[in-house]
Amino acid sequence: MSPRRKTVLRVAGLLVVLTVAALTLQRSLPDFGQTLDALRAARPWWLVLAAAAEMTSLRHFALQQRRLLAGFGVRMSVPRALAVTFTRSAISFSLPAGSAVSAGFAFRQFRTAGASRRTAGAVAVLASVISGVALLVMYGAVVLIPRGGAKGNADTLVFVLSLLVIAGTVFGIDYFVAPRRPGRPVIDEAEPEPQLTGGWWARGLGAAGRTLADLRRLPRRAWVLSLVHATVNWGLDLACLAATAAAFGIDVSLVRLATVYLTVQLVRQIPLSPGGIGVVEVALLAGLVSAGAGHAPAAAAMLVYRLLSCWMIIPLGLLTYGILRRGESPGGSPSVEPPVLAGSRKPG
């Protein structure tokens, strides 16, 4: 299928989704003035907690990839890993086919850090697979772990603060167990790569087998900590949504909120628009309203959550991209070409 036809189909699919959503929500959409009133009535300390949760979430997304690189014998500093994370998230949110361009940018940054082509590719694939598993682990933990009888916003406060404490603990553990020098590469570059032939199912099975083989090569500490970082990343992003909802007086149980969140993340995987812009907002608003939130508070919570988790990251990513480019002087690290914009995301 030609790129032009793919673009036409993507735009048509987006219009269909938005039209169906608008027809479904036409009686639920709040008046603009009511939404402004809800925004003015926001509780500021909850918004501070939401912002802290989202920024910490991005840090653990960076630490997940850094830990995988370290497992393959490649070192990357925490500041550089954070810069790569903000930049690739901004690319994913703002460009057509942003997820693919973001993955390509991360691949080139891994190469700049000293990874071979095969190692950089293995890290990119494993990070995606582990992130998907971590999303399900996080949801299962929220659903199955009892929360001690706290109700409403008290339950949310315990959840958010607990995750922030867990995040700090995991960061400390990662720091103290990290080797001070790069380990030996765990991938033998002289080993010939298998040629994936046959139908799509045969190639898929071959790629899955290769991913499992790369995972077995990793030290157990590397992939376990990577899974923990990814789980904390998703948990804190959910905590950002929970704190934002509490800021506008939305009293929804964490289990129902986690179900809305999981649904939105699945909808986001449909590549209809960069970063799911438009689709995610509609899905999140519909989910909050169906969970029992008032129309105006739901709209206000959706706007603030998307501001913290998507729209605000785009200018920050542009800033970190400039910092990365400036740090790659001709006499220093190998140059990394900027992403190709013509014809062309988080943890994710």
Considering the chains and any ligands shown, give keywords for the structure.
348 residues; mainly alpha; 0% strand; globular; transmembrane; membrane
Structural notes for this entry:
- The chain has helices at residues 3-25, 32-40, 44-71, 78-94, 98-112, 117-144, 152-177, 200-217, 220-247, 254-268, 279-290, 295-311, 313-327.
- It is mostly helical and 348 residues long.
- It has a domain at 54-184 and 219-327.
- Residues 329-345 have low confidence and may be disordered.
- Provide the β-strand percentage band: under 5%
Number of strands: 0
Shape: globular
Distance between the termini: 27 Å
Q: Please state the structural category.
A: mainly alpha
Indicate the percent of residues in helices: over 70%
Mean pLDDT: 79
**Which stretches are poorly predicted, pLDDT < 50 over at least 5 residues?**
329-345
The radius of gyration is 21 Å
Give the helix tally: 13
Biggest sheet layout:
none
SSE run: HHHHHHHHHHHHH
Q: How would the blueprint of this fold be written?
A:
Layout (H helix, E strand, L loop, with lengths): L2 H23 L6 H9 L3 H28 L6 H17 L3 H15 L4 H28 L7 H26 L22 H18 L2 H28 L6 H15 L10 H12 L4 H17 L1 H15 L21
Helix pairs in contact: 1-11, 2-12, 3-4, 3-6, 3-7, 3-9, 4-5, 4-13, 5-6, 6-9, 6-10, 7-9, 9-12, 10-11, 11-12
